[in-house]
Automatic annotation (TrEMBL):
Domain spans labelled Choline/carnitine acyltransferase: 12-237
A Pfam family recorded for this sequence: Carn_acyltransf
InterPro entries per record: Carn_acyl_trans, CAT-like_dom_sf, Cho/carn_acyl_trans
Species of the source: Cherax quadricarinatus (Australian red claw crayfish)
GO cellular component terms, semicolon-separated: mitochondrion
Superkingdom classification of source: Eukaryota
GO biological process: fatty acid beta-oxidation
Family to which the UniProt record says this protein belongs: Belongs to the carnitine/choline acetyltransferase family.
Protein name: Choline/carnitine acyltransferase domain-containing protein
Membrane-spanning intervals of the chain: none
Entry's Gene Ontology molecular function annotations: carnitine O-palmitoyltransferase activity
Database matches in Gene3D superfamilies: Chloramphenicol acetyltransferase-like domain
Length: 252
């Protein structure tokens, strides 16, 4: 009630901090200020692609969003990088998340195809899109049913650390480190009640991609750290990517 709120506001609090605690607080403040001073956010909202259009052409809306990220990064940098997509495992008691790995041979083939000076016909591109959608759907189902590999390997690595001694070769292999350095970290919260949402990159040289695809539009909230990444450039490439996907689906 109002009386209780007023009483709380009238109270003065005095905290006695140790020197170690004061130093920790100051360090946390400095780290926070350093991070936010270089964090940049770029936004894309477009009607070029939507759930309704994807359903009309029998492709997964989420697969098309993820394909757009892969094409955008390839257009911007000419390469493929480790990509993370969160997937709920709420079908299981105490289930939280598993990882979907959206960067596949199929998405890479499509990204390379549309980057050529003489790209394939729309009919050929549409076939590649269908393959991307089908494979992404399979990965999503596997992850949701606990058949992904990331959480299992994470658990095994933690067990190995707890036991001490030399780590198994898998966990010290450069390939394992590379696949866990997720340049593209992506997540969506599908809801008509939410327009946009985002989060910071998980690595300094990465992008944080919060995204939505609704009945009539799509949207991205892209975060990155300056000067490591060009967020505006990625958004520009993403617009191109979704137009390419749209044209391939809608034009014979």
């Amino acid at each position: 009630n109002q009386a209780a709120d007023a009483q709380i506001k009238s109270l003065d609090y005095e905290f006695n901090l140790t020197s170690n605690l004061e130093a920790a607080i100051n360090k946390a403040i400095q780290t926070y200020e350093t991070n936010i001073s270089t964090l940049q956010v770029n936004v894309l909202e477009s009607k070029i692609l939507s759930k309704n259009l994807c359903k009309k052409y029998k492709v997964s809306p989420d697969a098309m969003m993820q394909l757009g990220f892969q094409v955008a990064y390839y257009l911007q940098h000419g390469m493929v990088v480790a990509t993370y997509e969160s997937c709920s495992t709420a079908a299981f008691k105490h289930g939280r998340t598993e990882t979907i790995r959206p960067a596949t041979l199929e998405t890479t083939e499509f990204a390379k195809a549309v980057s050529r000076s003489q790209p394939p016909s729309n009919a050929d591109l549409k076939k590649l899109i269908m393959e991307c959608s089908k494979y992404h759907g399979m990965l999503t189902k596997e992850a949701a049913m606990g058949q992904g590999f990331d959480r299992h390997l994470f658990g095994l690595r933690k067990l190995a650390e707890a036991q001490g001694g030399r780590m198994p070769d898998l966990f010290i292999d450069p390939a394992y480190a590379k696949i866990n350095h997720n340049i593209l970290s992506t997540s969506t919260l599908p809801s008509a009640a939410i327009s946009f949402g985002g989060f910071a990159p998980v690595v300094r040289d990465g992008f944080g991609v919060g995204y939505q695809i609704q009945d009539d539009w799509l949207g991205l909230v892209l975060s990155s750290y300056h000067p490591h990444r060009d967020g505006a450039g990625f958004i520009e490439c993403a617009e191109k990517a979704y137009k390419i996907i749209h044209d391939a689906l809608t034009n014979p």
